[in-house]
Design goal:
The protein has three helices and nine strands, in the order βααβαβββββββ. By secondary structure, the chain is α+β, with helices and mostly antiparallel strands. 32% of the residues are buried.
Length: 161
């Protein structure tokens, strides 16, 4: 599996600010289904344009530049959105993406339970303030968690330029 883990992306202050900026942008399932029909949306999710918003734009540019520099890839952002889940089993939503790569930045997770991404054949751990880059064709989902602690991630669809 061609997966890249990059750690220590932002300061804790910056990471916390991204979470706070995200909260008012998270949409309920009923709104997501009406705007973007055809799939299951676990928890809450923002619109897929977060990387274009003032409070996120420089962070998105920093992330994509870091990924390109550290992996040797030349990727551009197609879409990005923030996800909120709390580990409910009914929120398991296996999916993949119609792009070259997917990226998840872990803003807040629960160590040993939701600190990573669940793939069909394995769970890949990724600590808070890290990002995981992987081919978008890999089917994945947010993991379940026995504790109802809020998990915030920032997901990206990326294509080769």
């Amino acid at each position: 599996m061609n997966v890249h883990l990059l750690e220590n992306i932002f300061s804790n202050d910056k990471r916390r600010k991204l979470i706070e900026y995200s909260k008012p942008l998270l949409l309920e399932n009923s709104i997501l289904w009406s705007k973007y029909p055809g799939r299951k949306y676990p928890g809450r999710q923002s619109a897929p344009n977060i990387h274009l918003l003032l409070n996120f734009k420089s962070s998105a540019e920093f992330i994509i530049n870091s990924v390109n520099r550290r992996t040797g890839l030349n990727l551009g952002i197609e879409k990005s959105w923030v996800n909120w889940t709390n580990g409910k089993k009914e929120d398991i939503a296996w999916h993949n993406h119609p792009t070259d790569y997917s990226l998840v930045y872990y803003m807040k997770t629960v160590p040993f339970f939701s600190d990573g991404t669940l793939f069909r054949d394995q769970f890949i751990k990724a600590p808070v303030n890290s990002l995981l880059l992987f081919p978008s064709a890999l089917e994945h989902t947010a993991p379940t968690c026995p504790f109802r602690i809020h998990r915030y991630t920032w997901a990206f669809n990326l294509n080769r330029r």
